[in-house]
Amino acid sequence: MEIDDTVDVDESIVVNLNQTRMQALCEYFRKRKLIWIIVLIIFIVAIIAIPTILVTVNRGKGEKTSTTQITTVEILTATTITEKTATDELISSVIINEKTKWKQSAITVAGGNGPGDQLNQLATPWGIYVDDDSESIYIADGWNTRIVRWKFGANTGELVAHRKLQGSNINQLDQPFDIVLDKEKKSLIICDVSYRRVIRWSLQNSQDTPILISDITCWGLAMDSNGDLYIPDWERHQVTCLQQGDTEGTIVAGGNGQGNHLNQFNQPHYIFVDKNHSIYVTDYKNNRVMKWMKNATEGIRVAPGETSGENPNSLIKPMSVIVDDVGNVYVSSKNSHQITRWSPGATEGAPVVGEKQSGNKPTQLNCPHDLSFDRQGNLYVVDTDNDRIQKFVIDRG
Predict the structure, then answer these.
(1) Same-domain pairing of 148 and 268
(2) Residue 301 placed within a domain
(3) pTM (predicted TM-score)
């Protein structure tokens, strides 16, 4: 008997339908698996990426903070530099007037080790020149017959001009009374009293010492902004102006014999010249300071003297004179051992440094001679009989 294995149409359709469903189901699960794989990959990437992003963000914040801090430091530094520059400019342009005060205890900046000829000593110094540019003080060391230079803060001086044991008197000194530094020509101009002359002493060649003017008994020296030299002649009772290249000079004050009239002097000593080319002269034996304006025929008394010692603030035997920015006159007096300030129109001076009694304490002077200011407004005094140079620091309090 034969078996009929033929599949009818309905059964074939069912089989095909089942196969289609199976394929669809497999495709469905295959796609779901792919999706889960993608999700898993995304999850893993997220786990790795998020900490990296956080680190980057924090690092960026740190860099911004550092940059801000650096910028702040730079700004503060710039501000500090600006403030320092402004302070330096302020210090270099101090205005000295009738309200200016100085600390009463002075600093010894040269000498002060007793009279002697060692480089840490002075012997009866007379004149000084304070050079702010080189931070030095040039000193006419009278009885040692030499010029010494002391750097600011130094314990000893440096010999720059002196009496030579051999050679002609052209390049020798004998009792220098005062000095001026000619920066343009790099030389000193020296009042050489015993030889009755004014000479130029080169700082580069000690053999180069030309005589600028002779037959003159000078005590002090001053130079104006044009390089013209002013020389008091205390034997002829006059002031001579020596211009560049001139060897004779022109009388610009006095010259009318010895006397006490306004057109006369009686042994003029030190001299100061201001920016208007007016000269101030200590008229030693007339006990006064005279101001002669340019081209004037007589002087003006700016520090009137007294002929007696009854007034403790009177001016007796004035030695040196300097003038501040507003016309106040500062005078050293041989007999009072003080430095006094004379305001315009004053009939007596106001002591600014020194005591009534002479002495060698930091607050005392003994026969003070030459005076000078530096750029910071500090006052320098040649304390002659104490063989030292005293610096009175300006009081900014």
Answers:
(1) yes
(2) yes
(3) 0.76
Strand partners, 202: 187
Residue 37: which domain range?
16-49
What sections of the chain are H helices per DSSP? 9-92
Residues 353 and 75 sit within 8 Å (Cβ to Cβ)? no
Q: How many CB atoms lie within 10 A of CB 130?
A: 20
Cβ–Cβ under 8 Å, residues 221 and 204: no
Whether residue 302 sits in one domain with residue 196 = yes
Residue 284 pLDDT class (50, 70, 90 cuts): very high
| d(C-alpha 306, C-alpha 57), whole Å | 86
3 state DSSP class of 157: coil
**Dist. CA 282–CA 275, nearest whole Å:** 18
CB 251 within 8 A of CB 263: no
Residues 378, 379, 383, CA angle at the centre, nearest 5°? 140
Shared domain check, 172 and 42: no
pLDDT in tens, 363-382: 999 999 999 999 999 999 99
pLDDT at 72 over 70: no
Residue 247 and residue 162 in one domain: yes
- 237 with 345, same domain: the answer is yes
Amino acid at 333: S
| Residue 228 domain-assigned (yes or no) | yes
Beta pairing class for 379-383 and 388-392 = antiparallel
The amino acid that residue 393 corresponds to is: V
Give the burial string for 194-228 (b: 16+ CB within 10 Å, else e). ebebbbbbbbeeeeebeebbeebbbbbbbbbeeeb
Distance between start and end Cα atoms, the chain:
141
Which whole-number Å values give the CA distances from 384 to 1, 24, 177, 235, 370, in the listed order? Answer: 162, 123, 12, 22, 9
Q: Tokens 């030389």, residue?
A: 187
Coil, strand or helix at 75 = helix
Burial of 107 (0-12, 13-18, 19+ CB in 10 A): middle
Domain holding 355: CATH number?
Answer: 2.120.10.30
Tokens, residue 52:
């990296």
What is the mean predicted confidence (pLDDT) over 72-88? 34
Q: Are 215 and 200 in contact (CB under 8 A)?
A: no
